[in-house]
Amino acid sequence: GATSPAGGHAHWGEDGASTPFERAMSRIGVFHSFAVHFPIALILAAALAQGLVFTGRFPTGADAVRYLVWTGAAGGVLAGLLGWAHSGPMGSDEAGVMLAHRLLGSGLLVGLVGLVALGEWARKTSSDLTKLLFNIALFGSAPVLLLNGFLGGALAHGGLRHLFGG
């Protein structure tokens, strides 16, 4: 796929976006890098709050966790859709960091919606199993979000150098 002059990533053909639709998506997609920070922060905060609820240090925090999960998931869906708008269709030669970032991001887009559904199911039942599944999903989402954020940073800032400054 084509790359932007800044070293970013775009897959709207070898010459970039050419149709009016592709150009519109490309323009909207530039907000992806702005939008991703909110769901990452909100889901990480939800996991922290849930950990405090779980350990008894925040016994009244269930509503805060619910709010953070809902807003984080909504932001995650927006960020994921903007990511697809930014990068365009998957290229046949797509590999490495971009492919991993796209696949993890797409999984997160769907998974965060599932996290909300699981959280609501756990709220409506008194089953320890649904609460356990919600905790596994929430605590499992946190490292995946961190990894995908790292991969996105690598794409936007020139590979692994963005972490090490070299």
Architecture overview:
The structure is a single chain. With 166 residues, the chain is mainly α. It is 72% helix and 0% strand. The chain has seven helices and no strands. The protein has helices spanning 20-29, 32-35, 37-54, 62-87, 96-124, 128-156, 161-164. Helix 3 (37-54) runs antiparallel to helix 6 (128-156). The chain is elongated. The two termini are 26 Å apart. Residues 1-7 have low confidence and may be disordered.
Q: Please work out how many helical segments DSSP would assign.
A: 7
Bin the strand percentage: under 5%
Give the biggest sheet.
none
Low-confidence stretches: 1-7
Helix content: over 70%
Order of helices and strands: HHHHHHH
The strand count comes to: 0
Shape, per Cα inertia axes: elongated
What Rg is obtained from the alpha carbons, in whole angstroms? 18 Å
Secondary structure blueprint with pairings:
Layout (H helix, E strand, L loop, with lengths): L19 H10 L2 H4 L1 H18 L7 H26 L8 H29 L3 H29 L4 H4 L2
Helix pairs in contact: 1-4, 3-4, 3-6, 4-5, 5-6
